[in-house]
Amino acid sequence: MNQTEQHPTSVFRIVGGIGDQALYILTDLGRMGIFLFFALIGLFKHPFRFKELIKQLGFIGAGSITVIFFTALSSGMVLGLQGYYSLHKFGAEGMLGSAVSLTLIMELGPVLTALMVTGRAGSAMCAEIGIMRISEQIDALECMAIDPFRYFISPKFLAALISVPLLTAVFDVVGIMGGYLAGVKLMGVNSGAFFAGMQQSVTNHDLRLGVIKSVVFALLLVWICTGRGYFVQKIRGAGFGAESVSKVTTQAVVISSISVLIFDYLLTAVLL
Amino acid sequence: MSDESALSPESAIRFVEVCKSFGERSRRHLVLDRVSFSVPSGKTTVIAGGSGQGKSVILKLILGLLRPDSGQVLVDERNVSDQGYKALQELRMLFGVLFQGAALFDSLTVFENIALPLRERTKLTGTEIHSRVAATLEQLELTGHEDKFPAQLSGGMKKRVGLARALQLEPKIVLFDEPTTGLDPVMSREIYELFARTQQRLGYTAVIVSHDIPQIFTLADQIILLNKGELDVFTDASRIPFSTKPNIREFARLVMGQQVV
Questions:
Q1: With an 8 Å Cβ cutoff, is B65 touching chain A?
Q2: Is the residue at B155 inside a domain?
Q3: Which residue of A has its CA nearest to B98?
Q4: What is the pTM of this model?
Q5: Does the residue B145 lie in any domain?
Q6: Predicted confidence (pLDDT) per residue in B196-249, tens digit
Q7: B34 with B68: CB under 8 angstroms?
Q8: Dihedral angle, C-alpha B26, B52, B204, B199, nearest 10 °
Q9: Partner residue facing B120 (CB), from A20, A135, A144
Q10: Tens of pLDDT along A126-172?
Q11: Where are the domains positioned within chain A?
Q12: Which of A77, A241, B93, B257 makes a 20 to 30 Å CA pair with A272?
């Protein structure tokens, strides 16, 4: 008797919980969609804040050079070594330049750059905006009839869209140099063969794919990181105050990184 | 016995049967239940009540930062909820707001904080902005602190910088959200005197949300008390214990004790 009374209640509770979560996700997606729309519109609003853009280019772009340099050098050298050992088995060391450059330009360059920028600059942007939200600085801007998107969010978008593709290019060049160091200088692969293989195999299409990926990843990371910070008080389970900012910043980095990886596969599948 | 004469025909702000609740559907919490009142132009209205009674919600509804579930919030006889983006921006130009924590921009100096609304919302030249900000700094006894960052200021100074910023665009209505929270009694009294002086000089409509009872009543031309969803309006603090609303009488008894009764 008791069981028959409890069973439907628990089923309703489970179904209700699933529905509730689905509604929350839909609301959240809608909110983030509207946020993206206003952030993009803010790029064309007058007067554009060039000083803020320069500041953000410095923070997102120039500030990330060191971490990008070392990540690229390490990745390139590892690729050079591993590529050499794999190709050496088939006597195809001459293909090392091709393997290293294609892997870096189409995959590792855009993906690792986006992940590094997310970790370094994306988390900082999310925390900064989150703190501005909980300390009512964003409300203060709105009360002064100053559009917060034009004022400080859209310049972050533009700075990311400019910086990330350029950082990706730096990653590719440094990575290839790393591959060259490991393959040619350490393992003795012929230098001419290394560069000739690279020239023959890398096409405009490959470069275009790398650029498209870097632009899409830049948009994803800046959108997710700034958006989560902006809505810090509306995120379920985030709590309040400083705790909410820390939780939402972690969440932003995780969502942003996973999105980059998912979109990497999708873009490769569609554009390759 | 509430004082209905407080509802002036020349109202800067009117609430008409406003309801506002928070939380998700299963755990909805009604904060304002069919609330109606007016804020007379050029006067100081104090909104008082315990924590969580909806005082700050009223300010956010006035500014259009929140929308009422039902009812109307009228500013200058314009329904805030009906305004489009541009109209709402124009409506917000009527306001100056001093937030609870002053809401100063951490990365800007005192000077830049005060100059921000002038730089963003007017076509004044750099020299004009500089002279206006310098004059405000002097009036609010902040000269010499213009290059400091908010983190280097005391609580009272932050409030003064917040007030200076709120007054830059010469607003018709100034909203104060818990202006003396975190300040000692001496500093609170100084801030109240500063409010009275600036209000007298500029003639704006002031709405002060506070739980600093009964000290805050010294500033008030009109008092709005909120407790457990009930609201009552008074022009004289001594009438509060004789309210017709039981929750307001209970609030007066608990909070004001023998000081007014």
A1: yes
A2: yes
A3: A140
A4: 0.82
A5: yes
A6: 888 888 888 999 988 777 777 877 889 888 887 778 888 887 788 888 888 888
A7: no
A8: -170
A9: A144
A10: 999 999 999 889 989 988 888 999 999 999 999 999 999 999 999 99
A11: 2-271
A12: A77
